[in-house]
Amino acid sequence: MKKIDKVIISGGGTGGHIFPAIAIANEIKKQNPEADILFVGAEGKMEMEKVPQAGYKIIGLPIRGLQRKFTLSNFSLPFKIIKSLLKARKTIIKFQPQIVIGVGGYASGPTLLAASWRKIPTIIQEQNSFAGKTNIILGKKAHKICVAYAGLEQFFSENKIVITGNPVRHEVVDINGKKEIALQKFNFTTAKKTVLVIGGSLGARTINNALLKYIHLFQKEEIQVIWQCGKLYKSALEEKLKQLPKDGLILTDFIADMDLAYAAADIVISRAGAISVSELCMVGKPTILVPSPNVAEDHQTHNAVALVNEQAAILIKDKNAVEQLVPSAIDLILNSKQQKELSSNITKLAKPNATRDIVNTLNEVLV
User: Fold this and answer.
1) pTM above 0.85, yes or no
2) Same domain? 146 vs 246
3) 63 and 51: one domain?
4) What is the pLDDT of residues 27-85, one digit of tens each?
5) Strands 314-315 and 287-289, how do they pair?
């Protein structure tokens, strides 16, 4: 088996791509402390900040995605793609990686294409249960595709697929024995049930609207709420909620200690991004998923359905969420039998060794 010496990890755009990429890099370093790891991201995206904070070098490509609405920036897209391909090729020639890993996001396309043109082995980490178009194209040349869900043979060659699960930050899902200290942190009591609502770093408008309309029902049932609303919505929501009692209600744009938030929760309401779903499987909490309709290939709905098919979560469509979400959450939190069933089933889907298994796949490709 060859030692891993030089690796490029490419992708980003959202935390759902960046944090798994960093987790993979950390595991490579754990197994190969002298390994040289270079990230390739997209200029102006959050990876350009988060990756250096994690201690790794990163190069940015001028790549951008196609805007769904008409905009003049779409006319410059072909030139940005060409520039990105040339810069990715130059980076690969200079860095000479043994292997290139794509984790999704704009930058992974040019980087993996350039690597395959140079006959350098590539691996794709497909996070969702429904593959995106870029990964389907890249998968034709990739040596292995590490996936989180079964059934992706419709997108990739069966002999290339390795079911590893998605990498998650273990400090986020390490909740054992933390419930009491978590409730204390949020000034909550053990005598009441707690709902955790997470809509992603930018928040989720529909989920916020649902809670805004029916938050009084939670308070009527004496249910405590940790509500991560996103930075775009916090000020307006604070103004609209200022007449409500603050006991048992935490409104925040960002949760720094996600392990304590998960530990405090009796049930969780969440979008259905791939990494969020993987975290929820690890923490084993009864979950209501509200998939975002504003994502490519509607992959969040596919992620949610994969859990629903295993009786491991409840799905509420975005278009129905304003009216149905809070009443459904109350029904669930008052139904201990259903909570136990959901918790048991979602825990069975957890892949605690995902990061290690992905790095083991790298090792196998380099044999």
Assistant:
1) yes
2) no
3) yes
4) 999 999 999 999 999 999 999 999 999 999 999 999 876 555 555 555 667 888 999 99
5) parallel
